[in-house]
Fold this sequence. Notes:
With about 230 residues, chain A is an alpha/beta fold. Chain A has 7 helices and 10 strands. In chain A, the strands form 2 sheets. A 6-stranded mixed beta sheet of chain A has the order 6-7-8-3-9-10. In chain A, strands 2-1-4-5 form a 4-stranded antiparallel beta sheet, with helices on one face. In chain A, helix 4 packs across helix 5 and helix 5 (about 145-160) runs parallel beside helix 6. The longest helix of chain A is centred in the C-terminal third of the chain and has 18 residues, at about 175-195. The mean pLDDT of chain A is about 90. With about 375 residues, chain B is an alpha+beta fold. Helices cover about 55% and strands about 15% of the residues of chain B. Chain B has helices at about 5-10, 15-50, 70-75, 105-115, 120-130, 140-145, 195-200, 220-230, 245-255, 260-290, 290-300, 305-335, 345-375, 375-384, and strands at about 55-60, 65, 80-95, 100-105, 135, 150-155, 165-175, 190-195, 210, 210-215, 240-245.
Amino acid sequence: MTAIISLKSVTKRYVRGKQPIEVLHRLDMEVEQGEFLSLMGPSGSGKTTLLNLIAGLDHPTDGEVLVAGERIDRLSGTALSRWRARHIGFVFQFYNLLPVLTAQQNVEIPLLLTDLSSAQRKNSARVALELVGLEDRATHKPNELSGGQLQRVSIARALVSDPTLLVCDEPTGDLDRESAGEILKLLQMLHREHGKTLLMVTHDPIAADYASRTLHLDKGSLVVAPLKSVA
Amino acid sequence: MKYFILIWAGLWRKKVRTLLTIASIVMAFLLFGLLQGINQDIKNGLSDSSNDRLWTTSSAGAFNSMPINLLERIQRLQGVRAIAHVSFFGGYFRDARNSLPALATGVDQLAAVYPELNITRAQIDAMKSTRTGVLIGRPLAEKYGWKVGDKIPVGTTLWTNNEGGNNWIFDVVGIYEAAPKYARTSLGSGFWINYDYWDEARLSDRHRVDQFIIQIDDPRHATAIAGAIDGLFANSSDETRTQTENSAIQSQLKELADIDFIANSIVGAVMFTLLFLTANTMMQSMRERIPEIAVLKTLGFGDGTLCTLVLVESLLLCCFAAALGLLMSAFAIPFVGTALGTRALPPVVILGGVGIAVALAIISALPPALRAQRLNIVDALAVR
């Protein structure tokens, strides 16, 4: 297996007021291609910070971040934007869909950064919505959809450009148990049937059980859980 | 063009706010179009007026008359090509509300200094053969439905005739059609009566006129000839003041009001207020969309692209609303500007309006666009 994510001695420090806060301490980590990894830990343990570094939303203070074969800690803002568009699909806790656009138009947004024609974009968005089981909701606006449906649209948007890595920040944090279960099954299906590499931050141990491996973060350091067998 | 969907989504995120902002901009540019349209038309009118025509009035003021025999002395000056005299008759038709721009003159002299009026030889002859004759500009004749042969009763409170009455009857002997640029001015819509008839028939102020209009050989000699005319009557009981036609009209307008200053002040105040309004709307809209912008950045939209999207959104809003406002003013100006002879929105005003709309859009969108460009994704998403 090939490591698609490789972090070497990564440190992240923030300055809040005059006080420097070290969120991640010389962290080493590897994720294989096709893994479904969950990151767990208490609030303030650095889960989201780690996710942001891997997704190219932030730069480490020290160390190397290698994702999809690129040292992204060295990339400038513009290059990093292009890299994210090509390699990362992001699923947010609160969906973050544009309220004025329909489900299909929301899913099309990442494709605006490609050279695809309008017809190709529409077709790809339709396929992505089919994949998440929402083809019949394509023309609905976000305020006409349930929480679970909104998260499915968000997943379709993350998938539509076929990214190298799906990054999910508390994807079930705003959902009831039933909807959360459906979303987690959907993520598991993407991992098992489509070979997607997923990285999911969660507080929920039940959600973490859907992943093939779980890493625990505590006070900025990793505690490695045993590798689970992939069914 | 493929990003249009995002711009459209941004514009209609809050429909009521966008519509109210559009309405404000439309009203501002409607006002801009009307005020500047009329103002520009007046300026154009001034530029149409001539610097090779001089106006001589009494130095005591335009409403003080002068002896008509000054005309012969002025006429003898070098550089004077033609001269006409004009006196105010005024009056009204049927009702005091229907005031008439009636002026007394010698029509042959008038035709010589104002060839733009297109007064024909036959009309001059008709005026000479009919002492009670009147020559009327086409727009005025059409307004009251007058035609050649009609007798027009004109009332006046200024001039009593030698029969002791204030009612004068004039016979329409001709209807002239001035050059288009004069058509709706007081000259093109004139009501010209024979001075000789009126002067004999009136009881007061006889053998006196209000103004001389002098056609000179070269505009470059205007100052010298004006000085020579005023010099002729210096230290006499009939001192004169001579200006070019252009300067005289400007002086008269300034006696009424500095229209240019008023128009610019109002438009300036409105545009300044509008700038704050639009900038505030854009800032507010941007504040509300910070999480969405952060999401777009997360998806891979570059800083420059997002900055451009905000600018284009503002340009679309301002330019569409401004175009609507200018279009409305173009439709309204023939009605509003009738009294001043303004018929159409001058192209320079349309161009100026478009320029202001673009400047307004850029200035009001620049702070939110820069904010979008500098937005830190991690901080913005953390707020959510």
